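By convention, the token line describes the chain's fold. To illustrate:
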Amino acid sequence: MTDPRSAPAVDEPQTLSDRTIDPAIIAPAAIMTPPVTVDIVTAREEARDARRGFRQLMPRMSLKLAIGLIIVVGIVLFAIIAPIFAQDPYDSDNPALQPPSPEHLLGTTKLGYDVFAQLATGARGSLMVGIIAGLIALVLSLFFGIVAGYKGGWWDEILSLFTNIMLVIPGLPLVMVISSYIPVRSWLLVAVVLGITGWAGSAVVLRALSRSVRARDYVAASRVAGEKSGRIIFVEILPNLLPLLTAQFLFAIIFAILGEAGLSYLGLGPTGSITWGTMLNEAQSGQALGQGAWWWFVPPGLMIALLGAGLSLINFSIDEIINPKLRLAPQNARRVRQAKRAGRGVEAAHTTNGAEA
């Protein structure tokens, strides 16, 4: 008699729930789809943060930014295109002191010069003075501000001493003294002088901010890794100061254009060149106001005012990025309005409930 325990085991039929199902049978596409690793997710998050950070560096489109861009771009296009279609600004064969007409859109001066032609040519001169002076002031403020703030030590003491000396000396009187000792002055020389005397205030601000950025972790990590100071300044520090640098550059342009106009009005501006300031000087010396020739001095003065207003509006839009209070001001104002509306509704509800009670 055979022992049942010694009998060979018979395979019992297995149900579907007892079987091990191959995942490839259920989801064959799962094998073809690569798994999302932690590195890929991290890279995606870093790219998203980088795009978000770049968008935060750009000014948000608003009414004042749109108006400022329209004014500035319009003046730049006028300075580029208008001289092509205007007559020679030094042509004196025209009748003197003619009011605006189809032949002369902005009239003529006392010497017969076409005001429209001089306005178009002067736009180029004034814009070039502002841009070159702004670039010179920006480069000097970068050197004396960021290098002093990052390097520290004796670098900071020497550069800060020179910055404080330039900050104490009044800029416009110094430019007047320099211009008075130079008999022949081109617009390039005036731009260089204005740029050299207009960088100290920006350097003080950049020095304070660079000292703050120097203490951050990513800058300290670059220094520990052995990166050179030049690379740290241009790669790690400057991108974080880009909105401030743009605002300071626009302010330097405004300062240079107004400074050149003031010097030219006093007779210390460029000689042999046409700018909006020299037009005002010629109108003042030619008694344009007394003779009622408003078309001689109003256009250059209006162009200076419009350009200054346009650059100021753009500068205000950039200030919203630099100053967190200005950046969050529209949102806070909207929340206050919503809270006030909600509060009035609650008070009305309480009043109604009390009357019913």
About this structure: The chain has 15 helices and no strands. The mean pLDDT is 77. Residues 115-151 form the longest helix (37 residues). The radius of gyration is 34 Å.
